[in-house]
Amino acid sequence: MAEPGQEASRPVRHDVRRRLSTISGMDWLERAAQLRQWSRGGVRAPHKPLLLLYALGRFQADAADELPYSAVEADLKHLLVEYGPPRVTTPAYPFHHLVSDGVWEVRTEHGPGSPGTGVRELRAHRATGRLAPDLQDALRREPSLLGRMARVLLDLHFPASLHQDLCDAVGLEPELAETAAPTTPGKRSRDRRMRETVLTAYEYQCAFCGYDGMIGTAPVGLEAAHVRWWAFDGPDDIDNGLCLCSLHHKLFDKGVLGIGDGHRILVSQRFIGRSKAAREHVTALAGRPLIGPQPGARPIAAAHRSWHTSQVFRGAPRPTIA
Questions:
Q1: Which pTM does this prediction carry?
Q2: Are 28 and 135 spatial neighbours (Cβ–Cβ below 8 Å)?
Q3: pLDDT tens digits along 35-94
């Protein structure tokens, strides 16, 4: 059976192994959009996107060519802890398997080719990885391609609330990563009405804390959050949406906050906040019922709550505070 980080279960929609003397920028965007990934029942496996974002960040910083596995391992492990699924995983899988997508190469002291997915083998053979030479050439010819590839990877695998933090973590300049392609290959269209629909259903107040700030008649600091991430087939429906303030939206997408049985708020035991503000705005939420939605609006569907709890929420929930 394939492990998370392997590419066995997600089909390739075009032959990424074909070699062309010149590959257009759009072809590289398609390759970024169609990375082969382990996939089963909505389980997150962002190993390859994280490694590719990391490599793009290194290339942008210093046009780094070879990246030793011994150096990449610790950085990628940290990225997987912060932005990957809650389960334990290894950076060795994407380091080896990203080769199959035509954007990455692995070499050892014995020449081209990866020794496999074993951490010991990668270390012992002094494995190094690098962006495929054709991709490096394309990035030099067309500097905006780097930001467009980053945008594809961010949009397809992570919620918007985490994009800037992730850019900072991999060393990508945010303004460059924000440079979007006219269309993102493989990307479905969002429902522009979702934000207004969700905010109206929750009567323009944060479902966690009740914040309801306005400037004139315009809400400020309130956002429509997807429970099941849009990047993972989360629908733009009321029963997959929450009205949250900016702070609690970020904490919800980072797995600090969740939603349990009875639509009560979960707070991760991994969250540490010693200040009065941290206790009042986060820790004290444990066990509280959600605020809203108003009568007649569908509450969050159990399937979406379950997905968030298994794929995003981190650790065990704190006990309810009396």
A1: 0.74
A2: yes
A3: 987 666 667 888 999 999 999 999 988 766 789 998 899 999 999 988 988 777 788 999
Compare 61 and 202 and report the one with higher pLDDT.
Answer: 202
Residues 215 and 272 in one domain: yes
The number of domains in the chain is 2
Residue 26's pLDDT is 72
DSSP state string for 85-102: -SS---THHHHHHGGGGT
Please choose, from the candidates 178, 152, 171, 159, the residue with its C-alpha nearest in 3D space to the C-alpha of residue 28.
152
Task: Supply φ then ψ for residue 223, to 5 degrees.
Answer: -140, 155
Average the pLDDT over each of 48-57, 83-92, 104-113, 180-189 and give the range with the smallest value.
180-189
Which residue, chain included where needed, has tokens 């030099």? 140
Within 8 A by CB and 6+ apart from 68, the residues are: 126, 127, 128
* Higher pLDDT among residues 307 and 2, named by residue: 307
Helix (H) or strand (E) holding 112: strand 111-112
Express each pLDDT in 8-32 by its tens digit. Answer: 433 333 333 333 334 556 799 999 9
One DSSP character per residue, 39-81 reads -STT----HHHHHHHHHHHHHHHH----EEHHHHHHHHHHHHH
143 and 283: one domain?
no
What are the start-end ranges of the E strands in 203-317?
Answer: 214-215, 218-219, 222-226, 241-245, 257-259, 265-267
- Same structural domain, 130 and 219: no
162-177: buried (b, 16+ CB within 10 Å) or exposed (e) per residue? bbeebbebbbbbeebb
Cβ atoms within 10 Å, residue 96: 23
- Residue 71 sits at the vertex; the CA angle it makes with 68 and 77, to the nearest 5 degrees, is 120
Beta strand 111-112 with 104-108 is antiparallel
Question: Could you give the CA distance from residue 253 to residue 314 in angstroms, rounded to a whole number?
Answer: 10
> What one-letter code names the amino acid at 157?
H
- Say whether both 215 and 298 belong to one domain: yes
Whole-angstrom distance, CA of residue 218 vs CA of residue 9:
45
